[in-house]
Specification:
The protein has 367 residues and is α/β, with parallel strands linked by helices. It folds into 2 domains: 246 residues, Aspartate Aminotransferase, domain 2, CATH 3.40.640; 102 residues, Alpha-Beta Complex (Aspartate Aminotransferase, domain 1), CATH 3.90.1150. The protein contains 9 helices and 14 strands. The strands form 4 sheets. A 7-stranded mixed β-sheet has the order 2-10-9-8-5-3-4. It is globular, with a radius of gyration of 21 Å. Bound molecules: 4'-deoxy-4'-aminopyridoxal-5'-phosphate.
Length: 367
C-alpha cells in the first residue's frame, strides 16, 4: 500500500491515524459485532459516538454553553439558504462581505430567496487580493446580520481579523461566517459569531456532513415558510436527528477531533504547525522568480495556496510530473487555472517539504 501526499482542496486528505482506526473498527465496532454504518442513529452506541464528538469539538474550540452545535447535511451550499431562512424571519436584510467565489455564491442564494442582499464591502476592485479593512465596512440601516467567508478556498485569500458587525445606528448584529476551509486550523473566539458553518470535507471529516454552530438566542427568528429540515431550532431540539443524520461522517469527524486533541495536542499546536507549513511554501514561491502568488501577504490563505508558473505552457508537465512524484491534486480550480496546494490540517509538513523540493527541481529543469 502506498499513500501519496494529497493536496486536494476538498474532499481533502484525512489524518492517517483516523483512517487506520476507522479501518480497524470497520467490521466490528468495539465488540458490538457491527459497523458504525449499520447502527441505528438512535442506538445507545451511536448516540454515545455523537455525543463524544460534540464534547470533543466543544473542548477544541472552547465553544461557550450558549451555542448549539448541529451536525447536518447539504454542505455549506445549503447553508447559503439556511442562514437567511433562519435569521431573516423578523425582516431586515442579509449584508455581505464579498472576497471571492464562495461568498458570491452565498450572496446569489440570499438574493434568489430574499431579494436585496447588500454587499457592504468588497475586494473586487483589487481582484480579490486583499480583504476589506474594518473601516471600509458600512452595514445597511436594516442589516439583520453580516456574512463573510473567512477563507476563500479558490482564491486563496483569508481574513486576518474578525470583522465587527455594527449598523449605522450603533446596534451590533450577528456575524455569520462560512468557515468551510479554515475551521479547526487554529484557535477561534466563537463568542464573536452568531453562526459559524462549514462543510466537513476539508478539516472536519468526509463529505456529506455539515457543521453549524449557532448562538441560542438566534433560534427564534426563522421564517415560517422554511423547509422544516433546515430549521436550526428544530435540529437543536432534536440533537441533529430531525431525520437520519450522516452517521458515518459524524463518527469520522469524532475521530478527527480525537486526533486533534491527542495526536496534535489541540488547536494552538495545530495553528503553529499550519503557520510553519504555509510560511515555507510561500517563501519558496516568493524566492523562486518562476512561481508566483498574487495575494497580499497579510491575507494569504494558510490552507489553500494558489500559484502560477511563469509560463502556463508548462502547467501540463508540472501536473503530470508532480503526480508521478506522488504529489496529488495540485491543479488549480478551473475558474483560475494554475496550481493550488491545499495544506489542510491532515497534510503533514513532510508533504510541504516534498512539494517544495519538487518545485525547485522542476524550476531548475524548466526555468
Ligand atoms: N464555501 C467554501 C469556502 C468552500 O470552500 C466550499 C467548497 N469548496 C463551499 C462553500 C461549498 O461547500 P459544499 O460543497 O460543502 O456545499
Amino acid at each position: 500500500m502506498t499513500r501519496h501526499f494529497n493536496f486536494c482542496a476538498g474532499p481533502a486528505a484525512l489524518p492517517q491515524p483516523v483512517l487506520e482506526r476507522a479501518r480497524d473498527e470497520l467490521l466490528d465496532y468495539q465488540g458490538r459485532g457491527l459497523s458504525v454504518m449499520e447502527m441505528s442513529h438512535r442506538s445507545a452506541e451511536f448516540v454515545a459516538i455523537a455525543e463524544q464528538a460534540e464534547r470533543d469539538l466543544r473542548e477544541l474550540l472552547a465553544i461557550p454553553d450558549n451555542y448549539r452545535v448541529l451536525f447536518t447535511q447539504g454542505g455549506a451550499t445549503l447553508q447559503f439558504a439556511s442562514v437567511p431562512y433562519n435569521l431573516l424571519g423578523r425582516g431586515g436584510s442579509a449584508n455581505f462581505l464579498h472576497t471571492g467565489i464562495w461568498g458570491k455564491k452565498a450572496i446569489a442564494e440570499a438574493r434568489h430567496l430574499f431579494g436585496a442582499a447588500p454587499v457592504v464591502a468588497s475586494s473586487e476592485a483589487n481582484g480579490h487580493s486583499a480583504v476589506p479593512r474594518q473601516a471600509d465596512i458600512a452595514l445597511s440601516d436594516d442589516a439583520a446580520y453580516l456574512h463573510y467567508t473567512a477563507n476563500e478556498t479558490i482564491g486563496g485569500i483569508e481574513f486576518d481579523y474578525v470583522p465587527q458587525a455594527v449598523r449605522p445606528d450603533g446596534t451590533e448584529v450577528p456575524l455569520v461566517c462560512d468557515m468551510s476551509s479554515s475551521i479547526l486550523s487554529g484557535p477561534l473566539d466563537v463568542s464573536r459569531f452568531g453562526v459559524i458553518y462549514a462543510g466537513a470535507q476539508k478539516n472536519i471529516g468526509p463529505a456529506g456532513l455539515t457543521l453549524v454552530i449557532v448562538r441560542d438566542d438566534l433560534l427564534d427568528q426563522a421564517c415560517a415558510e422554511m423547509p422544516s429540515l433546515m430549521g436550526y431550532k428544530a435540529q437543536a431540539e432534536a440533537g441533529s436527528m430531525v431525520n437520519t443524520p450522516a452517521t458515518y461522517g459524524w463518527y469520522l469527524a469524532g475521530l478527527v477531533f480525537q486526533w486533534l486533541k491527542h495526536d496534535i495536542g489541540g488547536l494552538a499546536a495545530m495553528d503553529a504547525l499550519n503557520a510553519r507549513k504555509a510560511e515555507k511554501l510561500y517563501a519558496a514561491i516568493d524566492g523562486s522568480g518562476f512561481y508566483s502568488n498574487p495575494i497580499a501577504p497579510l491575507n494569504r490563505s494558510r490552507m489553500n495556496v494558489p500559484f502560477v508558473l511563469a509560463d502556463d505552457r508548462l502547467d501540463k508537465a508540472f501536473l503530470a510530473e508532480s503526480e508521478r512524484a506522488g504529489l496529488l491534486n495540485l491543479k488549480g480550480h478551473r475558474s483560475v487555472g494554475g496550481m493550488r496546494a491545499s495544506l489542510y490540517n491532515a497534510v503533514p509538513e513532510a508533504a510541504v517539504d516534498a512539494l517544495i523540493d519538487f518545485m525547485a527541481d522542476f524550476e531548475r529543469r524548466n526555468g
